Amino acid sequence: MNLAIIDLVALLFFVSVWVGYTQFARIRARSTYSLSHILRQLRVDWMRTLTRKEHQIADAALLGNVERTVTFFASSTVLVLAGVLTLLASADKVVEVMQSIPFTAPTAPDKVQFKLATLSLIFVWAFFKFTWSIRQFGFVSVLLGAAPQYRSTEFTDEQRETFARQAAKVLDQAGHEYNNGLRAYYFSLAFLCWFLHPYLFIGATTVVIFVLYRREYRSRVLRALLATKGLEPGPITTDGESS
Question: Any alpha helices (H) in the chain, and if so which ranges?
Fold first, then answer.
């Protein structure tokens, strides 16, 4: 199998953009307000409130709802992966269908199989991210059960604060893994365009990056979440940090 130069460029662009944006988002979140930054603060507030409540039934229900959502995506990923692997045995038919679509670049069964195999790796990556997120949400459930009781005098305010921050950190990591799994879904949609044309693949990858950036740093929901803390989108200020 010999991929054309434009196909290699498109694939390299796809991988570079995905890895690059992941690192960019991680670094930029330290200096600019983003969804991940404000959610981290709100999770700390949640755990603080939890240590001062007599019952955590509502908190357990909220956590269970999020965990079920992640479980749904993990299960769906397995089904999608099974479908992609099934297509590997029908590459000839896939080529016939693709060639009937206008403006589709010429291809061959071995190239389609390579693309399908690569697509399957994306969903395997997503599955691992979702399942690791599920496990971490399970860890948070354990922490909820071990949380300092409202009427307990065995814990000082400092111990409660430490517990809240560390529990929020575990919850935050679970949220990040969930986000990474969802990000794989976004990029898999862009990857599908490669089956039609490498230029469309490059364009779709660019659109995905634009959508991810806008939702993370410029969305209305970010403004609403920041407003709950009296903040606005932009550089992080010392006053805006969670105390």
Answer: 5-28, 35-50, 57-88, 91-99, 109-145, 157-192, 198-217, 220-227
